[in-house]
Amino acid sequence: MSFELNTPISDLPFGVFQQLARAIEANNLWQHIFDNNDAVYKLSPLEMEKYSRLQDPGTHLLRLLGIRGQTIKSFISKLHALAKVYGSDMDKPQLILKRKFCPVIWARPEQILVSIVGDGSQLKLQCKTSGFPTPQYQWFEEDRLLEGVSTSSIVISRCPCTARNVFRCKVWNVVEDGQEWSSFYRANGKVYYSELISNIVDLSSFASPNQ
């Protein structure tokens, strides 16, 4: 069975409803969704305690959202907003609801933003993008992959030699294969992977003076 963006949460097909309920139960994700001042998603402390004692809080909370008039579209919008704080934790519920794939794009004209941090002896390089599913990051120095670095920013030492350092950032997003929603996103003709590679960032103006 299919569903539309204006479908009430409580009217989702049974299988999708159950997948979504389990997704918001994983790692108590529902507590982030309902921990705010939005009237539709607001729960009192007593209600939070009550739902936390249930074996299947997701089922009950989705029914509650249906009673409160929430549709697929409004719930996706809520998850999208929360993703700005919680990142990829909010991806799975949106994938279950078949949110449209959004290729990665730069979030600002400067592909990599450079700033001096701490006591002035370090530089922060930040690569800011947006897309759905949540973008993933890799950093390269002189075309050498920086192992173990998968965040949107890195901190490097600032010294007279900084101007010679060559950094770039690779960012991509993908709908992985082998998931319940994979066949929908990876059907023939659909885009399910995107990638950007930044220009080399110029650090010459940030090099510290000779000691």
Q: Would you mind describing this structure in some detail?
A:
This protein has 211 residues and is of the alpha+beta class. It has two domains: 9-96, Orthogonal Bundle (Death Domain, Fas); 102-206, Immunoglobulin-like (Sandwich). Helices cover 29% and strands 22% of the residues. The strands form three sheets. A four-stranded antiparallel β-sheet has the order 6-5-8-9, with no helix packed on it. It has a three-stranded antiparallel β-sheet with strand order 2-3-7, with no helix packed on it. The chain has a two-stranded antiparallel ribbon with strand order 1-4. Helix 1 crosses helix 4. The longest helix is centred in the middle third of the chain and has 15 residues, at 72-86. The relative contact order is 0.13. The model has no long low-confidence stretch (mean pLDDT 93).
Write the topology of this structure.
Elements: H1 14-25, H2 29-33, H3 45-52, H4 57-67, H5 72-86, H6 91-96, E1 102-106, E2 112-117, E3 122-127, E4 129-132, E5 136-141, E6 144-145, E7 153-157, E8 167-174, H7 182-185, E9 193-197
Antiparallel strand pairs: 1-4, 2-3, 3-7, 5-6, 5-8, 8-9
What about the largest sheet?
Answer: 4 strands, antiparallel
How large is the count of helical segments? 7
CATH class of the largest domain, named: Mainly Beta
Using the alpha-carbon principal axes, give the shape.
elongated
Percent of residues in β-strands:
15-25%
Assembly state of the chains shown: single chain
User: What is the total domain count?
Assistant: 2
CATH architecture of the largest domain: Sandwich
Q: Name the CATH superfamily classification of the largest domain.
A: Immunoglobulins
H/E order of the elements? Answer: HHHHHHEEEEEEEEHE
What is the CATH topology classification name of the largest domain? Answer: Immunoglobulin-like
> What share of the residues lie within helices?
25-40%
Number of strands: 9
- Widest sheet, order of strands: 6-5-8-9
Radius of gyration: 21 Å
Average predicted confidence as pLDDT: 93
Query: What is the terminal separation in angstroms?
Result: 69 Å
Catalogue the unreliable spans.
none
Q: Which structural class do the helices and strands define?
A: alpha+beta
